Structures are given as C-alpha cells and as structure tokens.
What does this fold into?
Amino acid sequence: MIQTDILIVGAGPVGLFTVFEAGLLKMRCHLVDSLPVPGGQLAEIYPKKPIYDIPGYPSILAGDLVDRLMEQIEPFKPGFTLGERAEKFEQLENGHFVLTTSKGTQIQAPVIAIAGGLGCFEPRKPPLENLERFEDKGIDYIIRDPEKYRNKRVVIAGGGDSALDWTIFLAEVASEVTLIHRRKDFRGAPDSVEKVHELAHSGRIDLLTDSQTTGLRGNGVLTDVVIDTKEKGEVVRPTDYFIPLFGLSPELGPLGSWGLNVDKNAIEVNTLDYSTNIPGVYAIGDINTYQGKLKLILCGFHEATLMCQSAFKRVNPDKKLSFKYTTVNGVNAF
It folds into this structure.
C-alpha cells in the first residue's frame, strides 16, 4: 500500500501546484488521475490552447503551463498513479484514509485533496438532427492541435471564453473564421470580447450574433453549416470544420457517493481552508463551490495554498507551522 501525507485526486494544474505548496511545508504528495498523463484537461484536451490569466505570462499554451508546473514540483518528488480512477475511500481508526482506485491500487494518507477539475465530463452538443453523422468528419468538440485548421474554413459556435479565445487564435491560422453566437452579449472576458469585435471590424473574422446553427450538410464529410441569422435570414456557410464550444457537462462520478455535501455537481467547501463536510477531506479548483466562486486556474492556486496550511496541522498535529517566504529562503531551504 502506498503511503503519503496528502493524497491528491486529480493531476491537473491545481493538483500539480498543490504539490509545490505542500512541498514547501515538508509534506509528501501522491496524485491519482484517470487520465494517462499529468496535466488534466490542459494536457489531454487542449494542450495548444493559449491561456491569458496566469501571472507573469501574457500568454502561455496549456501544455507549456503543465511543463512548467512539472518542473516546479520536481524537487519534491511526488508519486503518481495515472490511468486509474479514484473509486472509493474508507477512514481508519487512526483517522487516516485509504483510497482504492478502479484498478485496485490503494493509497493511505491523513489528508485527501480533491482537485478533480470538472470531474468526469462530456462536451455539450448542439441539438442538430444529423450531428453524429459528421462527428470526426468535420465536427470537433475539442481543439487539440490548432495546426489541423491551418488554411481551412472554420465555423465556431459559442459565447464563452473558450469560443472567444479560439476565435482569436485561429484568426491567425485558418483561412476563414466565423463565430456564431445566439445573443449579442458574450459570457467571456471583456478583453477577449473586445478583441473579437476588433477582428470582425477589420474583416479578419465573420461575427454572426443573434444567430444559431440550424443544420449541417455534406456527403460523407461536412461541407456546409446552415445558420439562422436575425439580420440576413438563413445563411449557408461553406466550411471544412464546425466547432461547437458550449462547454463541458460535468459529473462527479464516484466522488458523488463519498458522502460529501454537493450542490449542482460541485463540492461545497468552507472558504477558511476549502475543507469539506468530512474532516480531513478538502476540495480545490473547479470541482468546489462557494459564494463568489470563480472557475479560474489562478483561484485554484490560491485555494491550494490555503488548503495546505490547514492540512499541515492535520498531518503534523505536534508541530508548529512557521510561515516563510520563498524569496528569502529559497525552495531548497524548506
């Protein structure tokens, strides 16, 4: 049986950063993730997507951020159990937990930190009659490699950050980019909204608001997207790729049976230290919920930092926590 100080469920960016914060406090970590590589969605789903809200990086590709995080935690030698889903856990008489994975691996720790992102997820799909017919034949729900769209005609649908960010990025890659949104107002960052309008004004993209996709056409592969617009009526847009980016539909999976307080597929936490209703079990990152919650990687990093301060007291009940600055002491001093 594997033993560690903090068992982290989820090896995405927040889970990886937890290793760093725990390492500064001399706590060992072991991470469990159902994906085969560290990095979570950043590595598996959109490694080439640019991220704009990481301090110190005006823009960084998701995959590169994972590489930097792995480099940052390397001195602390975390353990990884990858390609195995966290299934169930039990609490021992000494207060420690034993987690069992889908392949029977068991890990024991006094603290569990759930950093599972959105949990198990599926892309939200538009209600189009012949959608499945063109899946992987012109329809993509996730952009893994933007070079796939080099000099291609691309139609993106959506009004959130992902749709806006990819529209901005692919404007430099694809031969044509059309963004469709059913309203005039977008849900994404104001700066991204402004950039999209600038691209549309300069003619580098076609922006269709108050519009929605009503049909798909093609013979074996997608050739056209049918769009119902408020101003122009029905428009048929020739395209090589249609990319509906309506977000992911999250499910907690096995975590939902752990006895945690849950609200709309998110785990309720105390913002003092991001603890759950089960003492010793914490939830950080997109998987948790509280008043004023923002689902940003930056916020997950903050939550991980405070969680580790609280976890130290549980891992080391007889030791006094002495807060230090890395700028003074350096990582190797901890």
Summary: The chain is about 20% helix and 30% strand. The domain at 125-244 is CATH 3.50.50.60 (FAD/NAD(P)-binding domain). The chain has a mean pLDDT of 90. The helical segments are 13-24, 41-44, 62-73, 161-170, 190-201, 297-315, 326-329.
